[in-house]
Every structure is written in structure tokens, then in C-alpha cells.
Design a protein that fits this description.
single chain, alpha/beta, 5 helices, globular
């Protein structure tokens, strides 16, 4: 049986939705999803991708506290990503908007999987 590869799921939380981007150990995008705030759909989506995963949440605690509690209550591994680490990724996007899928992708970079 083939060993499961660790994936990182970058999570960018907004007032109404959560953008999730899954990447492999090399930082290659695997899948993405936009999920309503408060929904349990994120857990099902993440489980369908890999049993070995790390959730990287952009550290914006006034918006992410509920999500962190949800993930930790079911035993998910979690790291907080300082917002300053996601801003450069957002600024190079085609429309230079903050709050697009690149925030999740920046949080899911391979350096998160290695803890640094």
C-alpha cells in the first residue's frame, strides 16, 4: 500500500466564507473549495483529500476563532499563519485584491508543512 502524502490546507476566512486551498509537499495545488462560514463541509472536503494533513489558518482571530475550535475539536493539526506572510502573495494576483484565493494558497505553502 502506498504511503499517504502530507498535504497542507491553507484557510483564508472571510465574514461569509472560507477559502481553502490544498497543496502537496512540494507546494503544488491539489484542490480548492469555498465553504460557507460555520459549515461542517470543510471537514468532509479535507478528509476526502488525505488523512495526513495540516491546516494553516491565517491568524485573524476575530474571524477564525470558530474555525480553529471546530478543527481542534476533531483532532486536526493546526498552525496559525501571520497575515504579513500572506500579504505578498495577495499583492501579485491579477487584480491585486486582498481576500481572494491567494490568501489560502499563501497559507498552504510548503514551509508550513515543515513548520517554518
Amino acid at each position: 500500500m502506498e504511503a499517504m502524502e502530507m498535504i497542507v490546507i491553507g484557510l483564508d476566512v472571510h465574514k461569509q466564507s472560507v477559502t481553502a486551498v490544498a497543496v502537496d509537499e512540494a507546494g503544488r495545488p491539489l484542490d480548492e473549495a469555498v465553504i460557507q462560514v460555520g459549515s461542517d463541509a470543510l471537514l468532509g472536503w479535507a478528509s476526502s483529500l488525505s488523512s495526513e494533513r495540516l491546516c494553516a489558518v491565517e491568524d485573524c482571530r476575530q474571524l477564525t476563532r470558530w474555525l480553529e475550535q471546530q478543527l481542534l475539536s476533531v483532532g486536526e493539526d493546526l498552525v496559525r499563519v501571520p497575515p504579513k506572510l500572506t500579504v505578498p502573495e495577495r499583492e501579485v494576483g491579477p487584480d491585486r485584491r486582498i481576500g481572494d484565493r491567494s490568501g489560502g494558497a499563501a497559507g498552504a505553502g510548503p514551509e508550513q508543512a515543515s513548520g517554518g
